[in-house]
Amino acid sequence: MKPHARRITTRASAATAMAFAVVLSSTTADAQPPTSDSDAMERYEELGAQAAMADEDLLEAQANLKDKQGEKAAAEADLAAATAAYEQAQGAEGQFRGHVDKFAAAALQGAPLSRMSVVLTSDSSSDLLDRMSALELLAADKANALGQLSDAKDTASQAQASATEARQRAQQATAAAQQLVDQVEQRQTKLEDQIQQVRNALDDLAPAQRTELGTVQDTGSYLGPPGAANDALQAALSRRGSEYEWGATGPSEFDCSGLTSWAYRQAGISIPRTSRQQYQAGKQVGLNELQPGDLLFYDDGTGNPGAIHHVGMFVGSGKMVDAPTEGQLVDVRSMEGDGHLIGARRMVG
């Protein structure tokens, strides 16, 4: 989602930009030193695209890690609640079992708990009625105790099953989160290496090229139909001249999707953070149906949404406002980018 080292469609480099395709491969673009200004620009753009892909991969891994950490926390909370419920149910089971055990002990000791024994041992009709009433109360108490014991045992069993399931989920989420921590660290290391290559390539550019890249080229006004999309567009345009920064979301520095998500947030619309996630949001629109405020997405030329690494915002007249890569400013440029425009999405309306 990051920058996207699009063929820098600044005035002087537009022709060069359209002449080369960004090659995203495992081979490094700095295998050969540049032999001309155009070679240096091509190398810079190619490395920027590769770094953008690595940055998008990193953000994706970080988002996945955050989700897994949330799952882990939820599972641990469920485990704590289930464990407490199980312990409470065990306590209730023990209490009701004590009542039942008293009745069992009385029966073993020959206690007069039958109707016949009451009749045979009563001294008078009044005594008989009293004993019969007491017997009914005891029978009800016994049935109630047995029922409560059964319910407590069922509750304890269910709570134990819930605790076991929650414990398994917590263990699985913990393991998955740890794997993602390792993945994030690996991708962070890869990104840092590629960013350094971009910086080296930027240093190899001619002074005039670096000056052009670091200067706003388009100060024109662009308007869309009234509404949130135009509000987002104007917010993005207001950031022209802001520097590119890996992973930045504003308000003074941006990466590519950091700019688009920030701009829509100013319009009161929440959209996903990364360019790949933004490609799944809103609704798809054809390139012949574009309206100002629509988002444009760029991949590595394979047509694979999983390889998207750059996003810009359509302003009209075949142009977009975007944050390209390190060394460049937020500005309005040709929407052709590096020629790998995979599609467009409309966030509102």
From TrEMBL:
Keywords: Coiled coil, Hydrolase, Protease, Signal, Thiol protease. PROSITE patterns: NLPC_P60. It comes from the Bacteria. Residues 44-92, 149-201 form a coiled coil. Residues 226-349 form the NlpC/P60 domain. Residues 1-31 form the signal peptide. GO terms for molecular function: cysteine-type peptidase activity. Pfam families: NLPC_P60 (PF00877). InterPro entries: NLP_P60_dom (IPR000064), Papain-like_cys_pep_sf (IPR038765), Peptidase_C40 (IPR051202). GO terms for biological process: proteolysis. Belongs to the peptidase C40 family. PANTHER family: MUREIN DD-ENDOPEPTIDASE MEPH-RELATED (PTHR47053). This is Cell wall-associated hydrolase, NlpC family.
